[in-house]
Amino acid sequence: MRRVVITGMGAVTPIGNNVAEFKEALFAGKNGIDTVTHFDVSDSKWTLAGEVKNFDAAAIFGKPAAKNTDMFTLFAMAAADEAMEQSGLQGKIESDRIGVCFGSGIGGIETLCTEHRNLLEKGSRKVSPRFVPKMIYNIAAGNLAIRYNANGPCTAVSTACATGATAIGEGYRTILHGYADAMICGGSEAAINALCMAGFGNCQALSTATDKDNACMPFDKRRNGFIMAEGAGVMILEDYDHAVARGANIIAEVCGYGSTCDAHHVTAPDPEAKYTAKAFLDAYADCGVPAEKIYVNAHGTSTPLNDATETAALKRAFGEDAKKLHISSTKSMTGHMLGATGAVEAIAAVLALTEGIVPPTINYKEPDPELDLDYTPNTAVKADLELALSSNLGFGGHNAVVAFKKV
Amino acid sequence: MVQEKIIAMLAEATDTDAAEITADTKFADLGIDSLDMTEMAMDLEDEFGITLEMSPELSTVGKLTEAVEKLVEA
After folding, report:
1. Ramachandran angles phi, psi of A50, nearest 5°
2. Nearest chain B Cα distance for residue A81, angstroms
3. What pLDDT, on the 0 to 100 scale, is given for residue A169?
4. Is the pLDDT of residue A287 over 80?
5. Domains of chain A with bracketed CATH
6. E strands present in A220-289
7. CB A34 within 8 A of CB A22
């Protein structure tokens, strides 16, 4: 049986534009949420978001690329550059043995809005020829393949808020079953946009909080919706033997993946959490580690339903042992990066595992008597971890859990 | 005037020094693709109030300049 390891990671997030910055902020409990600057929110009920700061795409990629590429792809390219650099893989693999499995929950919605405005105001002749190849959600995957000359399988996945985890899980299986020796995996999102915020807001998913320190409150009794965020996360997955043969630095091993669907409702999770629990069990089954040595980076969106359902799923999957798990929602710091969130949180889970530090759930002040697990409130905790699980649940009922252990 | 505008647009689109672009410069040599060309045509339409159909024959700065000038005079 082949084994799959991580040899590179890259991140662009509201609390740091590379993995080193992200890690420091993660363990310090830094809040990356603040008032939206990407558009005028004076007319909006939803005014807070986790925006990426100081990201100058023109300085990084040059003016033409910055103009011709949607921000969700630019975030993806920046995170992937960091991950590929760390892996040292470029030029050390046959081009058709490296592939891409990368997604986005929404795709280039800012581009869509701009070009729709052009259509209405100026007519069909003035819709940019770049509209489609900037907007379509697979184009981040396509751009990454071009960037690193990856001729192997190139797939874009979109499972809403589970996208990043699904991409890592499917990329893991692609290597496990021999279709590639390395995969560039992850997700990106740049959807802090008036239309998108109104859409999520009106379906009752977003918090209307205006105080940034009491807005994203996962597992807290006061939780009242998620906070939109943006960014990208990339993991370079590689066949273990391939990584060893080229003397690569191995960060951790991917040891399991669970993928199920509630098949219940388009937005609401199944309150019985049967299939979220199964995703946890499927990911965990091959790893066999006692609960007190497991860290769960929960989806923990700060919506009333998600956090209750996820708690129910953990109890269903782990029984009484659920109380021994180290759990946190790092969304309390980053906000919800939608299609990127699973990839960034998988990186957070791996950092917890390798550093032996459980990142906190910040803004946790009022316990909910129904939610009685250890959510690592407010301060990071040292722990001897052997396994890290990262779970993400998406509109459409998607459940994806990825599992990591030390090598 | 038309040629200067085209050269300025090309310099912007490709991050090239405008001084390096002349009437004889082929678009292909600047590394621009059909999407860039269509986008530039749209900008020229706005700039000069014309309707311009791009074609493969318009392969150099000089040829495109001539085509735009004819449309402006018409």
Report:
1. -95, 90
2. 21
3. 98
4. no
5. 4-245 (3.40.47.10), 257-405 (3.40.47.10)
6. 231-239, 252-261
7. no
To the nearest whole Å, the CA of B4 is away from the closest chain A CA by 19
Query: Which one of B13, B38, B45 has the shortest CB-CB distance to A129?
Result: B38
- Among residues B46, B52, B43, which one has the least CA distance to residue B6? B43
Domain limits at B51?
A: 2-73
- Which pair of structure tokens corresponds to residue A347? 């990186």
The tokens of A60 are what?
Answer: 């990084």
Instruction: Say which residues have a Cβ less than 8 Å from residue B29's Cβ, sequence separation at least 6.
Output: none
A125/B14 CB distance under 8 A: no
Domain count, chain B: 1
A150-160 pLDDT per residue, tens: 999 999 999 99
Express each pLDDT in A254-277 by its tens digit.
Answer: 999 999 999 999 999 999 999 999
Give yes or no for a contact between A321 and A213, defined as CB atoms under 8 angstroms apart. no
What is the domain-level CATH number for residue B28?
1.10.1200.10
Whole-number Cα distances in Å, A238 to A96, A97, A136, A148, B73 = 14, 10, 27, 15, 62
Report how far residue A145's alpha carbon sits from residue A148's, in angstroms, rounded to the nearest whole number.
6
